[in-house]
Each structure stands twice: as structure tokens, then as C-alpha cells.
Design goal:
This protein has 499 residues and is α+β, with helices and mostly antiparallel strands. The protein contains eleven helices and 22 strands. Helices cover 22% and strands 26% of the residues.
């Protein structure tokens, strides 16, 4: 039961849509109609003696139409075949429609077998009758076949002839003579003139140690057979202790000559060779002070073994500090103020000549910067002033010594909003830096008047000084700049770098 205090809910309101008068008039009940259906009309009384009207025929009619024959007790209609059997005809097979146990059987053929035998086998049609009926005689068919064969053969011959003519890209002729035109007075470009003058003084160099080899380029710098090249071009033979390494020089005319190593300087990546040869073409030396950014230059050498290759470009930059890192089998640690060029330089150009528009040597092609290993327009050459000084020293003394500071800088430059420099990682005991008071952690920002931006620039700045020279180093220590004079010493007695 519902508690007496339970709330009583009222009826839920029913929504009744508003009906307009026109709709109501069209769909309302007829006037006077009270319900959903009209009243059923009263049935008329049947006349006396008549049958009551029903929706089926009388039973007697149905029994006469659909009842069993008189005296029959069958449940279904009689089988016609069974009726024939009763009349004395041969018994027919059981009807599968009436007897589920009976086997399948076929009805009688549409044409009785006796009629089929009377018709007999029909004659076979010939190809002539199939294609033409009886309208074309055999003799006419033979004539038509001959004509078709002749026409087809003629069409094939004519088509093959014209097809051969149209398919050939060029019709040969013995009457055509291609003429050439000489130009003995044609002026050649300045590049061609410089290349023709310089190429005889540039050689190809190959080194072999056992089953290993390398190649590069070189430049004839003296008629006595002296050739300058990069240290990394011949370092494999220079470092070989078996004495079986060979260096071969190939000149422009194809002459090959064995070469002897005079001396080398890994710190500038330069070396000098000597060959026994006469009438050598010697390159002309220029001066670094005459080189300007934008000057036309040629790079000449044997990139990838392709001798006498000439590429052209301009001087892209000067005093680009470069420092090479030693690699396994190569002790090169060159540091120099490079001449940057966009003339194409590739592997094998090393040791070749970088010349100006007058054919004067302004650098020795040495390095490139490239992610792919090929030229991307960032080539570097050792400046000619350094080449002349180092080559002259090697020819005279066989060995080169450099100023020594005695510090190792961290590989990454130190930079902030105000300055950048090379941070000292460690100081060699007894070195000029240790004697002057340079300490680990100092950031060197200047060597003399030269600004130092990274470790490579520090190495180049020190090597550009003289042995015994006193130079002022500006360092940042504890947030303050301190100027410290240092007297540079020779690296002759410097400890060997760790391997």
C-alpha cells in the first residue's frame, strides 16, 4: 500500500497540437456522425422458401465436382497408367510423384522413335554451303582464292618496302660530306692561357706501401727536381718502417719517375719531394699580400686520379683558420690561415696548385668541408707565403720547428654575449705558458692583436709567431681580463703529443 503521507501526483498533461479550422474541416467526422464507423444497415428479410444467401456454393454442387467416382475408395486421383493397365495395356512403371519408393523415370520423347528412324541421318554441310549457300560455284571459289593470295602478297611486298623506308632514322648516302671549320686565329680565354702555362708544372703523385696506396698532386718549385705537396699525400710512406714504401711522380707527358722524400712538416701539412729529371717547368710564386677576396683563381691537380684537371672559381675568403686532426696512419695536424675558394676541389687535388689569373701560385690545395665527401664549393689552400717559407726550410734543413706555447685547449670554443675564445684544458709543465702563469680554465681571447674565437685560431696564431718572440696573451680569469706576456719557445724539445 501507498503510505498515507506519500505525495499524490497529478495527471501528466497531454500535449494537444493546435489544429487550424481548414484542417479540422477537411478531416473531421461528417456532420451528424457520432462514432468512428457508420452504423451497419439492417439486413433485408429473406423471402419465404428461398435459401439463405451464403458465400459458397451448395454442398451438392461441390460433391458432384470434386467427389470420388462412384464406388471408389482411392484417396487421390487415379493414375492414368494404372487405368491403361486395367484396360489390358502393359503396366507402366510406378509414378515417382505418387510413390516415394519409385525410381526416377523419363517421359516419352517428343518424337516417337519410329518417326526418327524414318527421317534418317542428315547430310553434312560443306564450307561453300556454310559461307555462300548454293550461290557460288566451286570454280568461282578457286578463282577468288587465287586473287586474294596475289593481292595479299603484293600488299606485303609494298608494305615491307615503305615500312623499311619510314623505319630507318637516317637514309644513307655516299654524296654527303661533313665539313669542318678551322679557326687558327681564334682568341682563347685567359683561363685557357693560364691552364696551358701552369699544367706542365703540376704533377700527379702516387704512394704504395704493400697492398695499400694513395694518390694526390704536387707542384714543381725548383728546376733541380724539388716538388712540394701535402704531408698527408705521402705520410703513409713516411711513417712506414719497413722501407718498402714507394713514391712515384707522373708528369704531364706521361713520364713516371720515382721520388725521394726530402722532408715534411705535419704541423703545416707540407712536404718536399725530389726527382731526377731535367728541363722541368717551374711554377711562378706569387705573394699572399696581393691576394684579394673575389680574385679569379684556378685549382689544378688530379682529383680522383683524373690528371690535368682544371677548375675555376674565385677567392671566397682569406685568413680562414684551419686545423687538421690526425687520423690513423696519418700524423698530419696542420694549422694555417687558409685561402678559401669555391673552385671545385676533390680527393686527389691535395698538393695541387691554386693559381691567380696570371698563373702565379697563391696556395697549395689541401682541404675541403663537405658532408658528402665531394666538392660543395668550400675548398681551402695553404697560403703561398707559408708554402715558400716551409719548403725553403725543408730543402735547407730537412726539418721545421715552430713556436711552442705549451697549452691544450678544449675542442669547443667558449662564447657569450661579450666575447669568445679558447679555454685552456691543461698546461704542460715547464712550458712557456706554465712559466708565464697561464692556468687551467683560463680563456684566451687574444694573441697579440689577433682576436681568438676558437681553438684552431689559437694554434694558428701561435704558429704564425717567431721562436723566442714575446707576445702578450689576453685571458679571462675569474670574470676579469688579464694580459700576460709569454716568451714562445721552440717545439724541438716539446713533449710528443699523445697517440
Amino acid at each position: 500500500m501507498r503510505p498515507s503521507d506519500a505525495p499524490v501526483l497529478g495527471p501528466r498533461p497531454v500535449h494537444r497540437p493546435q489544429i487550424d479550422s481548414l484542417t479540422a474541416r477537411a478531416f473531421r467526422r461528417p456532420k451528424g456522425q457520432g462514432g468512428s464507423f457508420a452504423p451497419r444497415p439492417a439486413a433485408a428479410a429473406a423471402p419465404a422458401g428461398d435459401l439463405e444467401p451464403v458465400n459458397r456454393p451448395p454442398d451438392a454442387v461441390l460433391a458432384e465436382a470434386f467427389g470420388r467416382p462412384a464406388g471408389s475408395d482411392e484417396l487421390l486421383q487415379r493414375d492414368p497408367d494404372a487405368a491403361n493397365a486395367e484396360a489390358g495395356a502393359p503396366a507402366a512403371p510406378a509414378d515417382p510423384w505418387r510413390d516415394p519408393e519409385a525410381g526416377a523415370r523419363l517421359g516419352l520423347p517428343a518424337v516417337p522413335p519410329t518417326a526418327q528412324a524414318a527421317l534418317g541421318a542428315a547430310p553434312k554441310l560443306t564450307a561453300r554451303e556454310v559461307l555462300f549457300g548454293d550461290r557460288v560455284s566451286p570454280r568461282a571459289l578457286v578463282v577468288l582464292g587465287g586473287l586474294a593470295a596475289g593481292v595479299g602478297l603484293a600488299a606485303g611486298v609494298i608494305g615491307g618496302f615503305f615500312g623499311g623506308l619510314t623505319a630507318s632514322p637516317v637514309l644513307t648516302s655516299r654524296k654527303v660530306t661533313i665539313q669542318q671549320e678551322s679557326a687558327p686565329g681564334k682568341p682563347h680565354s685567359q683561363v685557357a692561357k693560364v691552364a696551358d702555362a701552369v699544367l706542365p708544372s703540376v704533377v700527379s703523385i702516387s704512394e704504395i706501401v704493400g697492398d695499400q696506396g694513395a694518390s694526390g698532386s704536387g707542384v714543381v718549385i725548383d728546376g733541380g727536381g724539388y716538388i712540394v705537396t701535402n704531408n698527408h699525400v705521402i705520410s703513409m710512406v713516411a711513417m712506414d718502417t719497413s722501407g718498402k714504401g714507394k713514391i712515384t711522380v707522373t708528369f704531364r707527358d706521361g713520364t713516371k719517375t720515382p721520388a725521394t722524400l726530402v722532408g715534411r712538416d705535419p704541423k703545416t701539412d707540407l712536404a718536399v719531394l725530389k726527382v731526377e729529371a731535367n728541363n722541368l717547368t717551374v711554377i711562378r710564386f706569387g705573394k699572399s699580400d696581393d691576394v684579394r677576396v673575389g680574385d679569379d683563381v684556378l685549382a689544378i691537380g688530379s682529383p680522383l686520379g683524373l690528371k690535368e684537371t682544371v677548375t675555376s672559381g674565385i677567392v671566397s675568403a682569406l685568413h680562414r683558420a684551419m686545423k687538421e686532426t690526425p687520423e690513423p696512419g696519418d700524423d698530419t695536424a696542420g694549422a694555417y690561415d687558409a685561402v678559401q675558394t669555391d673552385a671545385a676541389i676533390n680527393h686527389g687535388n691535395s698538393g695541387g696548385a691554386l693559381v691567380d689569373s696570371e698563373g702565379r701560385l697563391i696556395g697549395i690545395n689541401t682541404a675541403i668541408i663537405s658532408d658528402s665527401g665531394g666538392s660543395v664549393g668550400l675548398g681551402f689552400a695553404i697560403p703561398v707565403d707559408l708554402v715558400q717559407r716551409i719548403a725553403q726550410t725543408i730543402i735547407r734543413d730537412k726539418v721545421v720547428y715552430h713556436p711552442w706555447l705549451g697549452v691544450s685547449a678544449k675542442s669547443q670554443a667558449v662564447e657569450n654575449d661579450a666575447l669568445s675564445g679558447a679555454q685552456v684544458a691543461d698546461v704542460n709543465a715547464g712550458s712557456p705558458a706554465a712559466k708565464a702563469g697561464i692556468a687551467e680554465g683560463d680563456v684566451i681571447v687574444k694573441v697579440g692583436d689577433r682576436q681568438i674565437n676558437d681553438p684552431a685560431e689559437l694554434t694558428v696564431a701561435v704558429q704564425s709567431r717567431q721562436i723566442g718572440e714575446t707576445v702578450t696573451l689576453s685571458v679571462i680569469r675569474d670574470g676579469r681580463q688579464v694580459d700576460i706576456p709569454v716568451t714562445l719557445e721552440s717545439d724541438k724539445d716539446a713533449p710528443a703529443p699523445p697517440k
